[in-house]
Specification:
The chain is an alpha/beta fold. The protein is 38% helix and 16% strand.
């Protein structure tokens, strides 16, 4: 309602910390100040919010400057809840709106008003902010009357289907919405808006390396971590970059989780929401760059690879601390982060693919005296990877350079579409055995469930005991071998895991060097 200078006004804003959104009530009222036109903000504003106060006042000045000069009192704005530190630039717009609305006499009940978020410029223009999707989800869950965001952020907010949205270009546009003069956005809503897949290299381009392609198929079907070792030029990076081409599209729930991560990381792209992400951080990445951090807290590479692929090239070259922080996400599929007394839990359910050379120069084992490394250098290089970390890789592969004849042949490999169909069918078999809402990939299943599903006979149980003893497998390694065997059986469309399947799983556990036993040997197995 328009009138004179209002005594008090309340609207809603939003702050975003990582993947969490918190609703903030902005309460403005006239108050005695040392200077009549003074503006003071309380409620634990951090440095970025304190700077936003100046931006908000400058943006609102052309609209209410004359009224401010005429006022006999200053303005006090409280940010509630008062015990929560407010950080980020998303409070710029609500600060400008509540400040200008107080002078314009806009009487508004915060519970009935939409939520405002956005950065403002000194000229009153409204700019993009991160975390719009998380804010839209919270606004929808609370049943708010709408969300007012920068117009350029509307594609991100449109992912939420049942929430009125308002796009604004200036602070004046936001005030018009408070007056009831704004029009809700009428764009299409949901995940399918403009969705298209980026071009991903095809597996058919790979020459030779049939065993590596088999390992990629098993990894994609069961969600198993893969470590590839080989000299430069053997195809490690080329193979890793083709894994997304054989992964299924993300479902609605998975796509929403990925979208929230992208929103918090300021890399939101509505066109690729259905496509599993592929992240390949450089080996100079810090532990904080991998797990996340900063103020405000942003997701790291582990979380940005959620429901996708994390490729770690030059694996031993990563900082030792960075390698060790990888162990928890590989086991628990989440990242626990504590920063400035605040605990956060970020999702990190990804397929980890790592690549390394056999030695620092990369040419060990190729003969002809090409390797220049001393035994001590090779030992130090390989010693950077701890045993507990290596134990968490279900599949290990030793690659050799492709022969020249195979490299320039017409190609003998299947296309990604053919392999992806087998992966899809194997995942369907896993999903059919799992109650809705639970993780269904074999790599995520419990030990007891895997053993129940594998239907071991006496021969298979005896073989597992022999393998643990002769190959010196740890208990964790044996459990992961059983999960890989379950995935191989799912790819073959069979229920029971036999000795041949266990031996194929062992071959990938031992670096791709073990071979399934011949038929007479299989008959002699206990």
């Amino acid at each position: 309602m328009l009138g004179g200078f209002a005594a008090r006004m309340r609207i809603l804003g939003m702050v975003v910390e990582g993947f969490d959104s918190v609703e903030v009530v902005l309460e403005a009222r006239r108050a005695p100040m040392s200077r009549p036109s003074e503006l003071r903000v309380v409620g634990l504003p951090e440095a970025s919010v304190k700077e936003g106060i100046y931006r908000a006042r400058a943006a609102a000045w052309p609209l209410v400057g004359k009224l401010v000069v005429q006022a006999a009192e200053g303005v006090l704005i409280n940010l509630a809840p008062a015990d929560l530190k407010k950080t980020g630039r998303s409070l710029d717009l609500p600060l400008a709106v509540v400040y200008a609305g107080l002078f314009l006499g806009l009487d508004m009940d915060a519970d009935q008003a939409p939520i405002f978020m956005g950065e403002v410029g000194l000229g009153g223009e409204v700019r993009s902010v991160p975390g719009v999707l998380a804010a839209a989800l919270l606004a929808q869950s609370k049943g708010r009357s709408g969300l007012v965001v920068p117009r350029c952020d509307l594609p991100e907010a449109r992912v939420v289907r049942e929430l009125p949205l308002f796009g604004v270009d200036t602070v004046a546009d936001a005030l018009a919405i408070l007056r009831g003069e704004g029009t809700a956005d009428s764009g299409e809503r949901g995940f399918c808006v403009g969705t298209s897949a980026e071009a991903v290299p095809d597996l058919a381009d790979v020459r030779g390396q049939w065993q590596a392609k088999r390992a990629l198929e098993i990894a994609a079907a069961g969600g198993h971590n893969l470590l590839m070792e080989g000299p430069p030029g053997s195809g490690k990076t080329m193979l890793a970059r083709r894994i997304p081409s054989i992964l299924p599209e993300l479902g609605d729930a998975e796509a929403l989780e990925v979208a929230v991560v992208q929103s918090a990381a300021r890399s939101f792209q509505v066109q690729t929401l259905r496509q599993p992400p592929f992240r390949a951080p450089h080996h100079t990445a810090s532990p904080a760059g991998l797990v996340g951090g900063g103020m405000p807290i942003r997701p790291g590479e582990f979380s940005r690879a959620h429901h996708g692929v994390l490729f770690l090239d030059e694996f031993p070259e990563f900082d030792r601390r960075a390698l060790e922080v990888l162990r928890q996400p590989l086991e628990e599929r989440v990242v626990h982060l504590v920063r400035a007394g605040q605990a956060r839990q970020f999702p990190a359910d990804f397929l980890c693919v790592a690549a390394m050379n056999p030695c620092p120069c990369g040419f060990a084992g190729l003969g002809q005296g090409r390797c220049r490394c001393t035994p001590k250098q090779v030992q130090a290089y390989r010693g950077r990877l701890s045993g507990p970390l290596l134990d968490r890789f279900d599949l290990r592969l030793v690659l050799q350079p492709v022969e020249a004849g195979a490299l320039f042949s017409g190609g003998d490999g299947e296309s990604s579409a053919v392999v992806a169909e087998r992966v899809r069918r194997a995942r369907e078999r896993q999903a059919q055995r799992t109650p809705p809402g639970q993780a269904f990939l074999n790599a995520r299943r419990s030990d007891q469930e895997i053993r129940r599903l594998n239907h071991y006979g006496a021969a298979e149980r005896s073989l597992l005991v022999r393998l643990m003893t002769q190959c010196e497998l740890s208990a964790r390694a044996a459990r992961r071998l059983e999960r890989v065997a379950r995935t191989i059986a799912d790819l073959s469309g069979v229920d029971a895991v036999g000795c041949e399947t266990l031996m194929e799983a062992l071959s990938f556990r031992m670096g791709g060097t073990a071979s399934p036993p011949s038929r007479p040997e299989r008959a002699a197995l206990p």
